[in-house]
């Protein structure tokens, strides 16, 4: 199934420099699985904050559906 | 210029009115960190007539701050002025009816409760996660609302921590503190000033609403990125396993007091705070250091440039520059300043 990704801000550097792209992932993939396909190990990426699927914040074990959009938010800490 | 005349435009706004203005005049806030976010927040709240503003920062004004940290001037840079002092001086010229308390200090477990427990609201202008975790614990312990704000590159986020029984705290959406150096910083990926102004302005707006009891005050997480045309409100649920707002465990606050070292964001510098802080004898130290390097004394600090560089504050706190780790910073402190 195809999943659309949007990596916000500096997170794009974790996945090769592109902010927006789609990838085919296996049916039943979780957010964590799909992010790994996109190039990010979210549990070992310090700048990863959380993922939002179709506008709702979800945990990495959330199971995706076809055509879901996954937005990935960084930790914002500077001041 | 002591009356409400200066606030005529915001009193006319029905979200504030005379009653709201009176609440602002009676309100007390604490702005922790007066860099890119904190200067905008303090500026806005001072102009709005918030009666008491405590501004805290451990740092001094540098040339690289001027790109985004409003209120500061080139003169502040040349004087090596502490940020809190410079902010207080500039705000006094903007609105002398507001009481501004400048605190030049590191916020840590030994003092954070004192700074946040006697105010109505805390505003986040800090540049690191550890201080935010501390603020979160101290504010929860004392039931004080606070407004989180953070930025990096072209993006940022803000969220009200309202201390509601069913609402989230900062730790609910950021359970673990990442290791310093493991994530992008303003030093490594930069930051543009529109995002700092936007996030800080949201913080100030939320402060006005919270302090006046007006408007829609939510505890949703707002993420903005000005380079990617993003603006998203995201609902954050209370974490049933949160150690702070559910478990009421304050692990950072409860750490035993000790000599303290922290890496400073974006500086390749470490701050050393000796145990049992005491007044540094600048005169004797300057005489000794002048034999091995260049010493500059201002009314705020002693700066040394030689084989190593550091700034020493009157209370013994020092910022050791161009060192990679805590061990190196402590060695410089012990050798040049004294243990």
Could you characterize what this model shows?
The complex is a heterodimer of chains A (79) and B (339). Helices cover 10% and strands 33% of the residues of chain A. Chain A is globular, with a radius of gyration of 11 Å. In chain A, strand 3 and strand 4 (56-58) form a beta hairpin. Chain A has one domain (2-74): Beta-grasp domain (Ubiquitin-like (UB roll)). Chain A has one helix at 31-38, and strands at residues 2-7, 20-24, 48-53, 56-58, 69-74. Chain A has a 5-stranded mixed beta sheet with strand order 2-1-5-3-4, with helices on one face. Chain A contains 1 helix and 5 strands; from the N terminus they run E-E-H-E-E-E. By secondary structure, chain A is mainly beta. Chain B has 339 residues and is of the alpha/beta class. Chain B folds into 2 domains: 5-234, NAD(P)-binding Rossmann-like Domain (Rossmann fold); 260-337, TATA-Binding Protein (2-Layer Sandwich), CATH 3.30.310. In chain B, 33% of the residues lie in helices and 21% in strands. Chain B has helices spanning 8-12, 17-26, 36-48, 74-79, 83-94, 112-116, 129-142, 170-173, 186-189, 193-212, 282-289, 326-337; strands at residues 28-32, 52-57, 99-104, 121-124, 145-152, 155-161, 221-225, 230-234, 260-264, 269-273, 294-297, 302-305, 309-312, 318-321. In chain B, the strands form 2 sheets. Chain B has an 8-stranded mixed beta sheet with strand order 3-2-1-4-5-6-7-8, with helices on both faces. The longest helix of chain B is centred in the middle third of the chain and has 20 residues, at 193-212.
């Amino acid at each position: 199934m195809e999943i659309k990704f949007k990596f916000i801000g500096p997170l794009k550097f974790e996945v090769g420099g592109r902010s927006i792209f789609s990838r085919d992932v296996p049916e039943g993939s979780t957010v964590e699985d799909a992010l790994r396909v996109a190039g990010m190990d979210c549990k070992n990426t310090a700048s990863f904050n959380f993922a939002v699927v179709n506008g709702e914040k979800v945990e990495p074990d959330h199971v995706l559906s076809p055509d879901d959009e996954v937005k990935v938010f960084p930790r914002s800490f500077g001041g | 210029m002591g009356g409400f005349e200066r606030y005529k435009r915001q009193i006319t706004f029905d979200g504030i009115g005379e009653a709201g203005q009176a609440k602002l005049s009676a309100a007390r806030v604490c702005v922790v960190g007066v860099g890119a976010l904190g200067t905008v927040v303090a500026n806005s709240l001072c102009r709005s007539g918030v009666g008491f503003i405590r501004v805290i920062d451990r740092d001094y004004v540098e040339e690289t701050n001027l790109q985004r940290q409003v209120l500061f001037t080139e003169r502040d840079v040349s004087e090596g002025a502490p940020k809190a002092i410079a902010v207080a001086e500039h705000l006094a010229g903007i609105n002398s009816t507001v009481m501004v308390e400048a605190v030049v200090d590191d916020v840590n477990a030994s003092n954070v409760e004192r700074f946040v427990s006697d105010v109505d609201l805390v505003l986040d202008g800090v540049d690191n996660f550890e201080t935010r975790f501390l603020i979160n614990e101290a504010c929860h312990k004392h039931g004080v609302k606070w407004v989180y704000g953070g930025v990096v590159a072209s993006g940022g986020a803000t969220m009200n921590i309202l201390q509601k029984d069913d609402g989230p705290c900062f730790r609910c959406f950021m359970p673990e503190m990442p290791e310093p150096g493991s994530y992008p910083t303003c030093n490594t990926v930069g930051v543009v000033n529109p995002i700092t102004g936007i996030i800080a302005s949201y913080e100030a707006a939320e402060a006005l609403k919270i302090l006046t009891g007006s408007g829609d005050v939510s505890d949703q997480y707002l993420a903005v990125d000005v380079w990617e045309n993003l603006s998203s409100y995201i609902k954050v649920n209370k974490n049933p396993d949160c150690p702070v707002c559910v478990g009421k465990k304050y692990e950072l606050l409860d750490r035993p007091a000790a000599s303290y070292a922290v890496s400073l964001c974006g500086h390749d510098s470490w701050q050393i705070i000796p145990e049992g802080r005491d007044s540094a004898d600048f005169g004797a130290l300057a005489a000794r250091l002048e034999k091995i390097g260049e010493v500059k004394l201002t009314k705020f600090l002693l700066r040394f440039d030689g084989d190593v560089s550091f700034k020493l504050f009157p209370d013994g706190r020092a910022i050791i520059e161009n060192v990679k780790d805590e061990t190196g910073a402590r060695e410089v402190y012990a050798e040049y300043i004294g243990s």
